């Protein structure tokens, strides 16, 4: 009943609770396709215009729900 992953030529115990997070200061990092298909990339970049659009949409949905 053990879960194992192979790293190189070694079997290593695997835990379902394992998480690995990587951050970068690059504004628009490029990752190879073979990396992108194996991970979830989350972009937390917020621009002033994007934030303004989100806030305007929130206000509009509260004040004029018929517009959605």
Would you write up a description of this structure?
It is built from two helices and two strands; from the N terminus they run ββαα. It is of the alpha+beta class and 68 residues long. The radius of gyration is 21 Å and the shape is elongated. It has a two-stranded antiparallel sheet with strand order 1-2. 29% of the residues lie in helices and 12% in strands.
What's the quick description here?
The protein has two helices and two strands, in the order ββαα. With 68 residues, it is α+β, with helices and mostly antiparallel strands. It has a two-stranded antiparallel ribbon with strand order 1-2.
Query: How many beta-strand elements?
Result: 2
Radius of gyration: 21 Å
Low-confidence stretches: none
Total helix count?
Answer: 2
- Fraction in beta strands: 5-15%
Q: Structural class, from helix and strand content? A: alpha+beta
